[in-house]
Amino acid sequence: MNFEHTEERTMLSDGLRRLLGDVTDLKALARGDYGWSTDAWEKLAEMGVIGALFSEEDGGFGGAGFDLMVTFEEMGRAGAPEPLLEVVLAGGLIAALGADSQKEAIEAIIAGTTQVAFAHGEPGSRYDLARVSTQAEKTDDGWKLSGRKSVVTNGAEADLLVVSARTSGEVGDTDGISLFLVPKGTDGLDLRDYPLAGGGRGAEIEMTDVTLPADALLGEEGKAFEAIETANARATCALCAEALGLMETAKKLTMDYLGQRNQFGQPIGRFQALQFRMADMIVEVEQARSAVINLAGHLDDDRKDREIHVSATKQLVGQTVKMVVEESIQMHGGIGMTMEYDLGHFARRATMTEHRLGDALYHLGRFSRLRGAA
Amino acid sequence: MDLSYSDDHEAFRTELRTFLDERLPKTLADKVRLGKRLIKEDHEQWHAILQEKNWHAGHWPKEHGGAGWDAVQRHIFEEETTKAHAPRIVPFGVAMLGPVLMAFGNDEQKAYWMPRILSGEDWWCQGYSEPGAGSDLASLKCEAKREGDHYIVNGQKTWTTLAQYADHIFCLVRTSKEGKRQEGISFLLIDMNDPGVEVKPIVLIDGEAEVNEVWFTDVKVPVENLVGEENKGWTIAKYLLTHERTNIAGVGFASEALSNLRRIAGLEMQDGKPLIEDALFAAEIAKLEIALMAMATTNLRVVSAAAEGQAPGVESSMLKIKGTQIRQEINNLTRAACGPYAMPFVSEALEPGSNIDTVGPDYAMPSTAEYFNNRKLSIYGGSNEVQRQIIAKTMLEV
Ligand SMILES: Cc1cc2nc3c(=O)[nH]c(=O)nc-3n(C[C@H](O)[C@H](O)[C@H](O)COP(=O)(O)OP(=O)(O)OC[C@H]3O[C@@H](n4cnc5c(N)ncnc54)[C@H](O)[C@@H]3O)c2cc1C
Ligand SMILES: Cc1cc2nc3c(=O)[nH]c(=O)nc-3n(C[C@H](O)[C@H](O)[C@H](O)COP(=O)(O)OP(=O)(O)OC[C@H]3O[C@@H](n4cnc5c(N)ncnc54)[C@H](O)[C@@H]3O)c2cc1C
User: Fold this and answer.
1) Is residue B385 lining ligand 2, measured as CB closer than 6 Å?
2) CB within 8 Å of chain B, chain A residues 247-286
3) CA pair distance A8, A70, nearest whole angstrom
4) DSSP code at position B45
5) Measured between alpha carbons, how far is B371 from B365 in angstroms, rounded to an integer?
6) A361/chain B closest Cα distance in angstroms
7) Which of B343, B372, B391 to substitute to test the interface with A, most A CBs within 10 Å?
8) Any residues with CB less than 8 A from the CB of A300 and at least 6 apart, and which?
9) E-strand spans in chain A?
10) B380 in contact with ligand 2, CB cutoff 6 A
11) DSSP secondary structure letters along B118-159
C-alpha cells in the first residue's frame, strides 16, 4: 500500500497552500465581515483548482476522492471560506445528470465565472436527504416550483441553483425527487442572505410559483435520489478533508502557543497536564486523517460500502473536531476566546462542519443501521 | 441523612416564586430566555427591583444591609431566579467586593462603599488578570507607587468583564518588587472616571464585547482606597477567589439549559420524528441529566456544610470542574440539536433593541453563541487545570 499522494496532487497541494496563504484574509474572517473573496476565487480558478474537482470526461482533470481530499485539506488549513464545496455538490450533480446542453455550464464553473449552489435542505429536513417537500408541478410548457429551502450555502451569490423538488411520492420517499436548474433572478425566488458562523454566506430561499422551462429538469423525473446521495458522499469527503485542514491549523497554533506562553516562569508546554492532552490531540488528528483517507479511497465503491465509509468518517471527524476545538481554546486560555486571534475563526469554522451533511451523533446512528443491515 | 428542605426554606421558596411572578418584568425574562444580550439598564432595572425587597445582596448580613440569608437560601434564590429567566446578579460588587470589605475594609470604607453597592450606585469590575498574569496571578506588574496621599498607578489589566459599564474597579496592584512576588501586592479601589483610565473592548468568538482591556497611565488614587494593609493584598485575593467560586457549580443554569435542550429536541425533527425520540440523542440527554442530578446533590452537600460554617475548600474546585463540564456539554448538545440552523450568524440580531430577525427558529442562533461563549466557564475564575492542581495538591500526599 502506498499512502503518498501522487506528484500531481502534491504539486496541487503545495501550490494551493501558497496561494491561499497569500489571499486569505484571516483578520477579516475573524471579524466575521468576509463572506468570501472574488479575488481568491479567480486565483483558484486560474490555478485549476476548480477543474481538479471534475473528471476529464466532464472537462476537468481530476475528480477522484484524493483530489477532493488534497484540495479541501488545504482550504481548511488556510481557513478559506470560498464556496468550493458547492461546486462539488451542484457542479457534481450537473456533471452526473446533465444533458449535453446543461453540461455546458461546467466549463464556466471550472473557469470560475459561474457560481453555483445546491438548494436541497428544508426546515425540518435536518440531515435526511430524502425529506424533500418542495413541490414541482408539470405545466404545459415546463415546471412550476413552490416551497422553501433553508441554509443554502452560497445561495444568494449563485448564478445557477440546483434545486430539488418532489414530483411524486411522500416526504421521506427516495423516489419522486427531481432536480431543476434555476438561474439567478428567476421570478418567484425570494432570497434572504446572511453570514454563517464559520465564514461564507447562506440564504433562505422561498419559492412561490417559480416558472421554469421544460429543459430545466436535470436528469430523469423523480429519479434524482441516487445522484444526490453520490454527490453528498463526495461532498462529505471534501468537508471532512476541510475539517482535517482546519484541525491541523488549530493544532499547530496550540502547539506553538504552548511553547511561547509563559506562566510560572516557564512555557506552559512544560506542564505535563497540557503535554498529555496535546499528545492525545495529535493521536486523534492522525486518526481523523486515516478516516478521511478511507473515505477518499472508497468513494467509488458500490453504494452500501461507500455509505458505510461516509458515516464512519463523518462520525469520527465530527468527534475529533469537538475535541480539537475545545482543547485548543482551553489550552490557550482567554486568548483562545477572542475574535482577533486566528484560532477563533478555525474553531468556529471547524465546529460548523458538524452542522453540514450530518453531525457525529447522526452518523453514529446511520453507521449502525447500515452495518446492522449488512 | 435528610435530603429535603426545612419548612422555613420551603416558605422562602414560595415567597420568592410569588415575588418573581409579580415583579420580574416580562420583557427582561424574555430577553434572557431568548439568549439576547443584556445592557446596563437591564441589569440596573433588575437590581433596583430586588433592592426594594433587600434582596440585591440577600446573603449579606443584616448589619450590612443584606437579608442575612444562609447558604441554602442563597442556593434557592439562584435556583428559582434562573428558572424564572431573571438576569443573573452581576457579581462584582455584591458577591466579590462586598465580602472583601466586610472582612478587610476599615469602618470608613464599609460605611462609604457598601450602601453604594446595595443601591447599585457604583458598578464594579474586577481587575486581577493582566496579559502576562493569568493562571500565574502573582506575576502581575500593574504598579502603584505611593506619593504623599496618593498612589500613582501605571499598567494594564485585561479580560475585565463588563468594564465598559463600570465606574469603579478593584485591582490587584504591585506596591513592592522586593521579596516573594506574593508579598508585594496590594488591593486598591480605583475610580474609572479618573484621568488616565482607558477601556478598550475585546470581542469574543461569539461576537460580543463583554470583556475589556483596562489601561492606567499615571492615575492618582487616594490612599484611603487601599483595602487592608499595603503588600498584603494576596490574602485578600485568595479570600475573594473562594467567594468568586461560590455557586460555581451553576446548578440552576444547568437545569435551565437542560430543559431548554429538551424543549428544542422536542421541536426539532429528525427522520420525521421529534429529535428527542431518537434513541442516541435521548441517551446523550439522559447522561447529562443523570450527571446533573448527582451534581445538584454534591452542591447541596457543600452548601449545607457551608451553612453550618464550614468553609468550602477543595469542594469548590470539584464543583467548578464538574459544573462547567456539565454546562458545556449541555451547550454542545443544544447546538447540535439545532442542526443546520446553528450555522447562520447575524450577530446584530442578538444585540439589545435590534429588530433584525434571527434566521431559523429563535433558539438556534443563541445556541451557537452560547456554546462558544461558555468555553469561558472552564477558563476563568481559575482554569479547570488550576482547579485540578488544587485538588491534587490538597489530597495527594506527595
Ligand atoms: C502483563 C505484563 C507483561 C509484561 N511483560 C514484560 C516482559 O515481558 N518483559 C519486561 O521486561 N517487562 C514486562 N512488563 C513490565 C512492563 O514493561 C512494566 O509494567 C511497565 O514498564 C511499567 O512499569 P511498572 O509496572 O513498574 O509501572 P511504573 O513505572 O511504576 O508506573 C506506574 C504508573 O505511573 C505512570 N508513570 C510512570 N512514570 C511516569 C511519568 N514520568 N509521567 C507520567 N506517568 C508516569 C505509569 O504510566 C503508570 O501508570 C510487563 C508488564 C505487564 C503488566
Ligand atoms: C470571558 C472571560 C472573562 C474574564 N473576566 C475576568 C475579570 O472580570 N477579571 C479578571 O481579573 N479576569 C477575568 N478573566 C481572566 C481569567 O481569570 C483568566 O483568563 C484565567 O485566569 C486564565 O488565564 P490566561 O487566560 O492568561 O491563561 P493562561 O494562564 O495563560 O493559561 C493557558 C492554559 O494553560 C493552562 N495552565 C496554566 N498554568 C498551568 C499549570 N501550572 N498547570 C497546568 N496547566 C496550566 C491553563 O489552564 C490554560 O489551559 C476572564 C477571562 C475570560 C475568558
Assistant:
1) yes
2) 262-265, 271, 273-274
3) 10
4) H
5) 10
6) 7
7) B343
8) A64, A65, A306
9) 116-119, 135-139, 142-153, 160-166, 177-183, 189-195, 201-213, 217-218, 262-263, 266-267
10) yes
11) HHT-S-EEEE--BTTBSS-GGG---EEEEETTEEEEEEEE--
Ligand nearest to the CA of B136: 2
Please answer whether residues B166 and B192 qualify as being in contact, where contact means their C-beta atoms are separated by less than 8 angstroms: yes
Please tell me the distance in Å from B76's CA to the nearest CA on chain A.
31
SS3 of A25, please?
Answer: coil
Within 10 angstroms of residue A191's Cβ, the number of other Cβ atoms is: 17
User: Could you report the per-residue pLDDT of B185-244, keeping only the tens digit for each?
Assistant: 999 999 999 999 999 999 999 988 999 999 999 999 999 999 999 999 999 998 887 766
ipTM value of the model? Answer: 0.96
Give the global pTM.
0.96
Please report which confidence band the pLDDT of residue B246 belongs to, taking 50, 70 and 90 as the band edges: low
Strand partners, A207: A147, A189
Taking a C-beta distance cutoff of 8 angstroms, is the pair B228, B128 a contact?
no
On whether any CB of chain B is under 8 Å from the CB of A33, the answer is no
Report pLDDT digits (tens) over B267-300: 999 989 999 999 999 999 999 999 999 999 998 8
C-alpha dist (Å) from residue B318 to A5, B384, B387: 48, 9, 7
Find the angle CA(B286)-CA(B291)-CA(B297) to the nearest 5 degrees: 130
Our answer on whether the CB atom of A329 is closer than 6 Å to any ligand 2 atom is no
- Among B204, B275, B359, select the one facing A338 at the smallest CB separation: B204
d(CA B383, CA B386): 5
C-beta of residue B161 within 8 angstroms of C-beta of residue B226 = no
Q: Would you write out chain A's pLDDT as a tens digit for each of its 374 residues?
A: 788 889 999 999 999 999 999 999 988 887 777 889 999 999 999 999 999 999 999 999 999 999 999 999 999 999 999 999 999 999 999 999 999 999 999 999 999 999 999 999 999 999 999 999 999 999 999 999 999 999 999 999 999 999 999 999 999 999 999 999 999 999 999 999 999 999 999 999 999 999 999 999 999 999 999 999 999 999 999 999 999 999 999 999 999 999 999 999 999 999 999 999 999 999 999 999 999 999 999 999 999 999 999 999 999 999 999 999 999 999 999 999 999 999 999 999 999 999 999 999 999 999 999 998 54
Residues linked to residue B185 through DSSP beta bridges, in sequence order: B174
pLDDT-derived band at B1, boundaries 50, 70, 90: low
Q: Pick from A218, A29, A40: which is nearest to A112 by CA? A: A40
Pocket probe for ligand 2: among A257, A268, A277, A330, the residue whose CB has the most ligand atoms within 8 Å is A268
Indicate yes or no: CB of A202 within 8 angstroms of CB of B205: no
Cell triple for B207: 461576537
**Rounded Cα gap, residues A132 and A150, in angstroms:** 11
**Which DSSP helix (H) or strand (E) runs through A264?**
none
Which chain A residues touch B385 with a CB distance below 8 Å? 271, 273-274
Which backbone phi and psi does B169 adopt, to 5 degrees?
Answer: -135, 135
Q: Output the nine-digit C-alpha cell for A13.
A: 497541494
β-pairing, A160-166 vs A116-119, is parallel
CB A224 within 8 A of CB A119: no
> Which helix H or strand E contains B182, and what residues bound it?
none
pLDDT given for residue A117 in this prediction: 98
Radius of gyration of chain A (CA): 21
Chain mean position to CA B308: 24
Q: What angle do CA A105, A107, A110 make, to 5 degrees?
A: 110
Q: Which of B113, B180, B174 is nearest to B146 (CA)?
A: B174
CB-ligand 2 contact for B126 (6 Å cutoff): yes
* Distance of alpha carbon A238 from alpha carbon A216, whole angstroms: 27
Chain A, chain B: beta-carbon pairs less than 8 Å apart:
141
Work out the average pLDDT over B142-171: 97
